[in-house]
């Protein structure tokens, strides 16, 4: 009896119960994590998110959901807010609104996703509109409401700006005339496909990332059976990097006028070919007759339209007309325009406005003023314009671009293709550059 008592007393006195050990260990882990958290976040954001950021954010999401839903008008009252008092209808505030049902927040790289069940009568829009409030409450960079199935909405939270990290060039292949040039904000590949949107306008201030996205495009198209033609009136400083892979390069306006004139001839030749074959685009021709697609790259487009003397005027008019014709006719004939510039305002002349209307695909990097962003993106979508205004100087290569998942606009960042990489790629695929003569109808066969 005595022995048993002694053993029981001994064990209670020398080792604390199991729960205390666990609590103690958890406190130590939490303390260590809270001390190393800022350092870990800087050093390795992914590890930080897995160990500290995600668990803390899950707690915040669950903790704040009721208040957030109430304040953002996502909760729905159980009973109508009107009642009958005698024979008078009284309008009041409904008691105890019911918050939308939320699943468990799931981890994903650099963020989390959580599914929310819509109340009958609700649409996903108010959830998308409440994104800003959720981002503040959960202390994350952004929250987006995505409606991927009926009756529910998926809330996607990003812990930090996914575009803040420069990404490496894509080396795979995605089909003729398509190119992966970077990443969309939601992590998907940013694909530019000339078969879907034939002509593109790229606008941005100096050092905002225009030439880099051109390099990313060329690095991909260089590997395909296409002709690349350059017009670079800043002395060919940018496009001459791709020299070996270019079929032609114009570095002053006289050369540009001549080159564009020949391209218009080619376009007219292809039109005749399609007419005689009874088809409406070169893609409907039999394979052997299909001409080589031509991509005309123009860097610093404003230079083409600047006039000093009256002799310039005639040349500018010639260039403007030729570019416009390529824009109007080229899409179905395998002639594509990718035009980059700092400004595309009507101050450069009426030719620019008409050309802009032909370039349906738009990419707008950081710009100096709102007017330029409006010219680049059109003034339809206020949100896209606001997003352009918020692009920081510290993030070159970030743009608001057309053609995101489901159409519409989204922020994206181009891959960082260095001039050396661009040069190497051009050299490697120089043998794929068709001769100019091959571009005429029948020449590519
Ligand atoms: N996607 C990107 N990621 C990281 N850095 C970039 C990116 N795009 C551009 N940069 C940086 O910005 C600089 C200017 O880019 P550039 O394409 O030459 O601008 P622009 O042609 O608009 O003047 C480049 O030297 C490069 O270091
Ligand atoms: Mg440039």
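Q: What amino acid sequence fits the structure above?
A:
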């Amino acid at each position: 009896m005595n022995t048993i008592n002694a053993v029981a007393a001994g064990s209670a006195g020398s080792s604390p119960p199991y729960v205390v050990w666990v609590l103690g260990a958890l406190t130590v882990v939490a303390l260590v994590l809270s001390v190393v958290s800022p350092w870990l976040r800087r050093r390795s954001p992914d590890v930080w998110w897995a160990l500290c950021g995600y668990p803390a954010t899950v707690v915040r999401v669950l903790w704040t959901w009721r208040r957030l839903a109430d304040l953002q008008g996502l909760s729905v009252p159980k009973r109508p807010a009107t009642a009958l008092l005698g024979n008078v209808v009284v309008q009041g505030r409904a008691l105890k609104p019911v918050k939308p049902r939320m699943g468990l927040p799931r981890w994903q790289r650099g963020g989390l996703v959580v599914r929310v069940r819509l109340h009958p009568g609700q649409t996903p829009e108010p959830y998308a509109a409440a994104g800003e409030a959720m981002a503040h409450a959960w202390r994350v960079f952004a929250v987006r409401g995505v409606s991927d199935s009926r009756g529910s909405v998926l809330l996607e939270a990003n812990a930090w700006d996914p575009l803040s990290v420069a990404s490496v060039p894509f080396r795979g292949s995605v089909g003729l005339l398509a190119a992966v040039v970077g990443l969309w904000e939601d992590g998907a590949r940013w694909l530019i496909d000339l078969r879907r949107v034939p002509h593109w306008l790229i606008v941005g201030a100096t050092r905002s990332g225009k030439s880099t996205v051109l390099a990313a495009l060329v690095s991909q198209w260089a590997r395909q059976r296409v002709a690349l033609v350059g017009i670079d009136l800043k002395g060919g400083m940018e496009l001459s990097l791709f020299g070996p892979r270019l079929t032609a390069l114009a570095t002053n306006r006289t050369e540009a006028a001549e080159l564009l004139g020949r391209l218009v001839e080619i376009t007219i030749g292809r039109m005749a070919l399609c007419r005689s074959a009874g088809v409406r685009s070169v893609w409907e021709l039999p394979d052997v007759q299909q001409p080589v697609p031509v991509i005309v790259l123009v860097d610093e487009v404003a230079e083409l339209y600047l006039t000093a003397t009256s002799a310039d005027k005639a040349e500018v008019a010639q260039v403007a007309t030729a570019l416009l014709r390529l824009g109007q006719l080229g899409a179905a004939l395998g002639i594509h325009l990718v035009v980059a510039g700092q400004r595309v305002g009507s101050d450069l002349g009426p030719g620019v406005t008409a050309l802009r209307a032909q370039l349906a695909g738009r990419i707008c990097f950081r710009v100096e003023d709102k007017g330029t962003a409006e010219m680049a993106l059109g003034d339809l979508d206020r949100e896209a314009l606001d997003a352009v205004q918020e692009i920081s100087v510290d993030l070159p290569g970030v743009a608001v671009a057309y053609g995101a998942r489901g159409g519409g606009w989204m922020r994206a960042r181009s891959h960082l293709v260095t001039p050396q990489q661009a040069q190497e790629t051009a050299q490697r695929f120089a043998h794929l550059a068709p001769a100019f003569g091959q571009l005429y109808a029948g020449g590519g066969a």
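Q: And what stands out in the fold?
A: Confidence is low (pLDDT under 50) at residues 1-12.
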